[in-house]
Batch of 2 targets.
Target 1
Amino acid sequence: MSYALLIAAGMFAVVAGANDGSSVLSAGLGPSGTRPLVSLGVFLVALVIGPWLVFGTGVATTLAHGLVPFSGPDTDRFVLVATISAMMVVFALVRAGLPTSLTLALVGAIAGAGLGAGLPLRGGELAMILLVGLAAPLVSAALALALSPLALRLSAGARAEGTLLRWHRGAFVLQCLAYSANGGQKMLALFAVAAGTASGGVVRDPWYLALSLPLLFGMGVLLGIRNISARLGRGILAVRLRHAAVAETCSFAVVMGAGLAGIPLTMSQSVAGALVGAGLSESRTRVRWREVTRMAGAWGVTLPASVAVAAIAGLAARAA
């Protein structure tokens, strides 16, 4: 067991809670009036039961074994390089005011660490991840454009608020499950390598990981609560309940589909795309295009920056 990697993986889980938690929770909290602790509780339960009991660990296996064939006694060292590099890139972009994807940063950092270590990179796997990542916000936007007229009709009825609220609550649960089947498994991949449960080409999710990871993630959400509050008032759309329900439904479909195929995908890209589609269904002016541009720019910088930082660090670790 690598204690250095275990500590870094714990820090990564906390960072994931602060970064990813705000993306998932912020879209629905404001318009629905749902209590944050109730939403957080649902989120954490989904993180426990998703990979452990329902969906398996396909995405975690892709991250641990599918991109770079790490093996031997140096595996922990280079996975540690990737973990630290991913967090460094995300911290730098957040400090620059650019919201980014921790999943995308980790994918790039794993690829970069493998290159620095002199290991072969499985280009087909990386290309598929990039292709799905590029398509996800577009597919989510298209789904939201198709679904938004129904949400708009439901919002005009006498019982509109109750109907939309039930839709939102159900879609939020599904969205949390989708995160557990996909983006949430990046934490599991790192812990599994550190704890030795990623051997044989398959990542296992023993009970002690299934229970401890959500606790660390929840700590990160609580530490990033100010970020959630900020996003409630400064997103790509002035979100109403119908927008939240549509965005959660569409992001669930896209992220869950990728997760079942074992393809890592960030939830924030799908949520952002769905919100853009929901806004466009009403008026082009409803979308805050400056925020959309900032997010797209951050995503575009994240992968090459992570590859470069991790490759340099991997070369240094290899020479040490």
Target 2
Amino acid sequence: MNAATVAYSPGLEGVIAGTTKICTINPETQTLLYRGYDIQDLMQYASFEQTAYLLLYGELPTPNELDLFTQTLVAERGIRPEVASIIAGFPKDAHPMDALKAGLALEALYDPEKNVHTNETNIRKAIRIIAKMPALTAAFSHAKAGTSLPPVLGAELNHAEHTLYMLQGQKPDALTAKVFNSTLVIYAEHSFNASTFSARVTTSTLSDIHSGVLAAIGALKGPLHGGANEQAMLTFLEIGSPENVDAWLETALTEKRKIMGFGHRAYKNGDPRAKLLREMRAEFITAKGANSPWPAIADRLEALMTEKKGLFPNVDYPIAYLYYMMNIPTEVYTPIFAIGRSAGWTAHVVEQLANNRLIRPKALYEGHPQRPWNG
């Protein structure tokens, strides 16, 4: 066995691929820190706007800084009519993540600083990307449903509230907006995950920030990454009622099906984000879902999976049924993940370009040795 074989780690598991000051995960203590701040504190106290500012700039904003940052986000919420028109013409059977990717690529063509690539312009472009993601997502969702995209509103709605308004055409109640804000904060960043690493690899070639985010959206689409939230809800819908959980799981395990929403490479003893969401759900369920079967299904399936397989829920598991109880269509779950994660993606792109080195790993060749041409 040569040195390359010894060093090889499938899926790059455990491999240090770079340095960052943005986020750290400690699986031993089950902590997740954004720029040194615990996700539990951020989820409880921070708005998405504060979180995005923290990720981009490295510090929590002062009141004046937050006000200016929020004003900029609000001013950039809309998408160009040309872009909205093209999105409306997308095939109705297109995947919403593909529509989001295409929509953002179109918006990139009109960015006023698309050909200027400094740290300052990248941060400004990052803010524009974060601001426009909800409208880009909603544009295709409404086009597919045959409804009109709501007009963009101003600062009377924060980012979480405005996202739900754009998707649903009405302002959310305070409790729904509060829980939804917490999910965006939780989704905002998670170190060198597949989509973030894709963004860094792309921009390490000195490509632009939009290209990095587009690469990230493509990676997030997969069911082993962002698509897991939609798949988890489809599992709950398939089960149907709490009484069906035991028999359903027995069949699924016999058929060796992958149970989406469980397990995480970074957390062997449970995803702290899932635990936090589970703890905060009580008030929401009491107010919005007293007769809903989904929490009871989730609790029973979680107990059985922990007992039988030693697997714990990841963040996508509780978010799946919380979004369903907010009347959010399952096909929009992963684009919402992208709306939150756009803050982390853009922060990583800015960090990558600030001290760039082309990301170009080696591969372990397992093909034929050199052989003669016999043609």
